[in-house]
Design brief:
Layout: H1 5-28, H2 40-43, E1 45-50, H3 60-65, E2 74-80, E3 85-93, E4 98-104, H4 119-134, E5 143-146, H5 152-163, E6 174-177, H6 182-188, H7 191-202, E7 210-220, E8 223-232
Parallel strand pairs: 4-5
Antiparallel strand pairs: 1-2, 2-3, 3-4, 5-8, 6-7, 7-8
Helix pairs in contact: 1-5, 1-6, 1-7, 4-7
Length: 258
């Protein structure tokens, strides 16, 4: 039974606001340690090879707009279980700080619960592996591109924006939403955006503290794609101290009689 798109949008919007608030809280407190998780090699078989995304020609204008080159890509397939299931596969371009999410289906992950990683942790560990191979910093991450969206809830959220006439494509060929827009919250609370915000929250330190500046919706050749644009967040400075006199009073010092 399909859910009412209005209901899907409303629930996702509230969930997205909470997720984004959690990310901002994490970025504001550098004393919090990153969430620890298993490495890919502990329970999976990662297979990394040089490969340009096959869907690149279909989104040439969008990729060019984001400054994404067609060279320097690696393709990582994550395999698990005796049956050889491949629940995750993504493209990475560490030199340019780009992740292009290709496929993710947690229901194909046949690992035991204690050896199973969250989708966000798989993406984080995959990025770590790709950066290590290219001798690049994980902190260069600037774009997370989710190509060819097929998730029903995410498509319903985008459909609601269209129905409300709030999804206008700009001159650059995409619709852009900043964190103060309800569409951003809904996408952040949906299945696709939820994993992105969770990765940025749980592994903020390793990724050098990234905030989402905006999310862009691209449409081309009948396909919808999301591009999460990241930016560095400056370290919060020390709290300002209220100046006090030697007598312990604010402002002017207390006069003493002699």
């Amino acid at each position: 039974m399909e859910m009412d798109p209005n209901f899907v949008f409303a629930v996702a919007k509230e969930r997205g606001r909470k997720r984004h608030a959690a990310l901002k809280e994490r970025l504001a407190d550098r004393t919090i340690r990153d969430v620890d998780c298993l490495s890919l090699e502990d329970g999976y078989l990662p297979m990394l090879s040089e490969q340009t995304p096959s869907y690149m020609p279909e989104l040439t204008s969008g990729m060019q707009n984001e400054g994404i080159s067609e060279t320097g890509w690696d393709f990582l397939v994550v395999e698990c279980g005796e049956g050889g299931n491949q629940p995750y596969s993504n493209h990475f371009q560490p030199s340019n700080g780009v992740i292009a999410c290709h496929f993710a289906n947690k229901f194909l992950d046949s690992n035991s619960p204690e050896m199973r990683l969250e989708r966000s942790d798989v993406l984080f560990r995959s990025w770590e592996l790709a950066c290590s191979k290219r001798h690049m910093s994980m902190g260069k991450l600037r774009l997370i591109w989710q190509v060819n969206i097929t998730n029903f809830d995410t498509l319903a959220i985008i459909g609601e924006a269209r129905n409300a006439d709030s999804m206008g494509t700009g001159s650059q060929g995409y619709a852009e939403y900043s964190p103060d827009h309800e569409m951003f919250s809904a996408l952040a609370g949906g299945p696709n955006g939820g994993g992105i915000l969770r990765m940025l929250t749980d592994h903020a330190g390793a990724l050098r503290y990234k905030e989402v500046r905006c999310v862009r919706i691209y449409e081309g050749d009948g396909r919808l794609s999301l591009c999460w644009v990241l930016q560095n967040v400056a370290s919060p400075g020390p709290k300002k101290k209220i100046p006090r006199s030697r007598g312990g009073f604010k402002g002017k010092s207390k006069k003493h009689s002699h």
